[in-house]
Fold this sequence. Notes:
Elements: H1 2-13, H2 15-18, H3 26-94, H4 96-159, H5 162-183
Helix pairs in contact: 3-4
Transmembrane segments: 32-49
Subcellular location: Membrane; Plastid, Chloroplast thylakoid membrane
Membrane topology: Single-pass membrane protein
Amino acid sequence: MKNVTDSVVYFGYWSSAGSFGFNTDILATNPINLSVVLGVLIFFGKGVLSDLLDNRKQKILNSIRNSEELREGAIEQLENVRARLRKVELEADQFRVTGYSEIEQEKLNLINSTYKTLEQLENYKNETIQFEQQRAINQVRQLVFQQALQGALGTLNSCLNNEIHLRTISANIGMFGAMKEITD
């Protein structure tokens, strides 16, 4: 009989450790549910996200290559312009007496237009890179937000039954009524 008493005392002492049941406290279970949902989203969404980022990276690299090709074309144009400049300078030496000021003005205009063209191409390249990066970031944010929202809605729909839903609505209506009384 002493063994039976010992086992009853033993089970009474550890009754909380041996019990099993559902925790209906929604505030205590939400962090667990959210962590599970986030874990599943990260686990399954990692491949989609990496594919999306790889595709975006390729587009950005292609844009950079195109910009570099444009830059190389601009450099070739600059070399052509410099060759023309040298030619103009030779002609300027020949016609220095008659039209020195006109030739000098043409030279400056040619240099300025070339530098403006180079600056515009460089700005275009930088804007393209920045735009593609921002677009990629926005698409990733939108995709992650959509997946998280769908997961959260699925979790909420699977966890909420009619009784809990009605109690939540009633509690919110009560809070709004109390807030209205306070503001009045």
